[in-house]
């Protein structure tokens, strides 16, 4: 069965990367969530997609220039349509605590391309281990050096390279960097590549799959998982497939 990962929580319907969005993913029956982590000025692992605060919050400037205390005063629902009330920027620790109360999988994307955030890998791994979440976490990043670092630090954790452009024989590449799956942009993952990876035993979890026709195509292909902004829609479409 193709698993459904709710992108940034449930970013199509709820303010991205907030506890409200993660709760929505659980409510609609997603199998997992995808989220993004960075470091605050005082070295706390926090959840936020952009390096800047401007798009999604009522603050501006870089995440890396604010302490956790300052980040906690921001409203993380500010950039989302509708009236949501105040949403705080979650920490990874808060998310892991929440995961304790459910069975969702969690894909943590390390946002360390624009800024490298030295120590991010160690902190994420330490938190995952301290909450004994090793079996439910997948680490991903567009920074593949960082993924190799993660694999060396914590070989028990699954890692998956993110990429946007065509990759030659991704099953060979993933193995070379210690990855146990690939997370391609769907434009870089034609059916033939997905099928080849699956036949080589390499899970494929493309992003961001929001169109029903694309969801159906990937369910039909038996793709390992999809990452979508609309998990409720995806769950509904997948049910239709299971009933046939
Ligand atoms: O992990 C899949 C996807 O989230 C990668 O792109 O920009 O949405 O973080 P982005
Ligand atoms: Ca992401």
Write the layout of secondary structure elements.
Blueprint: E1 3-7, H1 19-28, E2 32-39, E3 45-47, H2 68-71, H3 92-99, E4 105-110, H4 120-130, E5 137-141, H5 144-153, E6 158-163, H6 170-176, E7 183-184, H7 191-199, H8 212-221, E8 225-228, H9 231-243
Parallel strand pairs: 1-2, 1-8, 2-4, 4-5, 5-6, 6-7
Antiparallel strand pairs: 2-3
The structure holds SN-glycerol-3-phosphate and calcium ion (CA).
Q: If you compute it from the alpha carbons, what radius of gyration comes out, rounded to the nearest whole angstrom?
A: 17 Å
Helix-strand string: EHEEHHEHEHEHEHHEH
Number of strands: 8
Number of domains: 1
Tell me the name of the CATH class: Alpha Beta
CATH topology: TIM Barrel
The main pleated sheet reads as: 8 strands, mixed
Q: Could you say what the CATH architecture is?
A: Alpha-Beta Barrel
What's the average pLDDT? 97
Instruction: Catalogue the unreliable spans.
Output: none
Structural class label: alpha/beta
Beta fraction: 15-25%
Fraction of residues in H or I helices: 25-40%
At the fourth CATH level, what is the homologous superfamily? Phosphatidylinositol (PI) phosphodiesterase
Q: If helices are DSSP runs of H or I spanning 4 or more residues, what is the number of helices?
A: 9
From the N-terminal CA to the C-terminal CA, the straight-line distance is: 13 Å
Tell me the overall shape: globular
Which ligands accompany this protein? SN-glycerol-3-phosphate, calcium ion
